Amino acid sequence: MIELLQGDITNVYADAIVNATNTSLLGGGDVNRAIHRAGGKAIVEECFRIRREQGGCNVGRAVITTAGNLPAKFVIHTVGPYWNGGIHGEVRLLSSAYKSCLTLAVHNGVKTIAFPNISTGVYGFPKQEAAEIAFHSVSDFLIKENDLEKVIFVCLDAENYNIYYSLLKL
Ligand code: AR6
User: Fold this and answer.
1) DSSP string for residues in 8-63
2) How many angstroms is it from 34 CA to the middle of ligand 1?
3) How many whole angstroms from 145 Cα to the centroid of ligand 1?
4) What is the pLDDT of residues 30-87, one digit of tens each?
5) pTM here?
């Protein structure tokens, strides 16, 4: 049910890959830029449509678009919390981001979903704590929901990969 990969999420064959974006849905950032570059303009055009319809995406929530030229069918865009010392609801909001993505995935018939390490780049969330939140949020969801077949954690950098490797006791 849970897999770990080291590499570029834009190369992952899954029904949906998750993008770590910001509330405008038009941010910069590493994974966001990689997904838009590889996926093409169909993705950003849908992001613009969502902005027109609902103004963007709140922190801890998620929206879904086409995956354009990517191997995946969908991109689920979520907004993780910016790390601000951990006393502004960051833990709850990061967990909510993971669970919002999983809920949206199930509602769209997604069976396999790949996550980057949300909030651990530009947003500065401590990697160890973020990994623990990711793992427990996904595990809690999978215990209650049996429509998903696989959740893949995709780590671009070795530090995150090693943290998840230890956490998953591989
Ligand atoms: N594949 C997998 N993981 C990646 C890739 C990739 N191609 N590229 C980067 N990562 P970040 P955030 C990892 O900064 O911290 C933007 O401005 C990266 O190593 O992309 O949630 C947005 O618009 C890191 O571990 O997202 C927002 O404003 C993780 O993805 C803000 O940054 C997340 O890093 C979001 O910040």
Assistant:
1) -GGG--SSEEEEE--TTS---SHHHHHHHHHH-HHHHHHHHHHHHHH-S--TT-EE
2) 9
3) 27
4) 999 999 999 999 999 999 999 999 999 999 999 999 999 999 999 999 999 999 999 9
5) 0.97
